[in-house]
Amino acid sequence: MSEIYCENLCITYSQKEILHNLNIKIRKNKITALVGSNGSGKSTLLKTIARIVMPSSGSVYLDGKSIHRYSSQEVAKILAILPQSPEAPQEFTVERLVQYGRFPRQSFFGSLSPKDYKAIDWALEVTDMQDLRKKRLSDLSGGQKQRAWIAMALAQEGEYLFLDEPTTYLDMRHQIEVLNILENLNRTQKKTIVMVVHDINHAAKIADHIIAIKNGRILTEGNTKQILDEKIIEDIFGVKGLIISNRIDNTPLFFPLEVSYV
Question: Where do the ABC transporter domain residues begin and end (predicted)?
Answer without folding.
Answer: 4-240
